[in-house]
Amino acid sequence: MNFLKGGGDESAQSDSRLKHRHRGVWQKRFWEHQIRDEKDLQNHIDYVHYNPLKHGLVEDVADWPWSTYHKYVESGRYGNLDIEEMQRRIGDIFVGE
Questions:
Q1: Potential cystine with 77: which of 56, 72, 87, 88 (Cβ 3.0-4.6 Å)?
Q2: pTM of the full predicted structure?
Q3: Which residue in 22, 42, 37, 44 sits closest to 97, CA to CA?
Q4: Domain coordinates of the chain in residue numbers?
């Protein structure tokens, strides 16, 4: 289903986006990536969990209420989580993001 036809809101568009006919639903740059193995999958999950902290929306990963991080803690998949270690692993993979 088309996002806008389904009732999704479109944000205001800059002159540049209008000129180049770019819509505001998807980000301009993205990269496709096939998950290679369990370690790669975990790195991407860590990236998603760390993102609110990285962008200053929370002061701790656990503070983002909509995160699956909480389920990972409850299930024991995250023991004593070392945020600096998570950040280091993510930084090695997602350079320039």
A1: 72
A2: 0.60
A3: 44
A4: 33-93
| Residue matched to tokens 């998807």 | 26
CATH H-level superfamily of 33-93:
Transposase IS200-like (3.30.70.1290)
Within 8 A by CB and 6+ apart from 69, the residues are 49, 61, 62, 78
Using one digit for the tens of pLDDT, what is the confidence trace for 49-58?
A: 988 988 899 9
> Cα 61 vs. chain centroid, distance in angstroms?
12
Cβ atoms 48, 35 nearer than 8 A: no
What 3-state DSSP class applies to 30? coil
Q: Which amino acid is at 49?
A: H
Q: pLDDT tens digit string along 41-95? A: 988 898 899 889 888 999 988 899 999 999 988 898 887 767 777 777 777 665 5
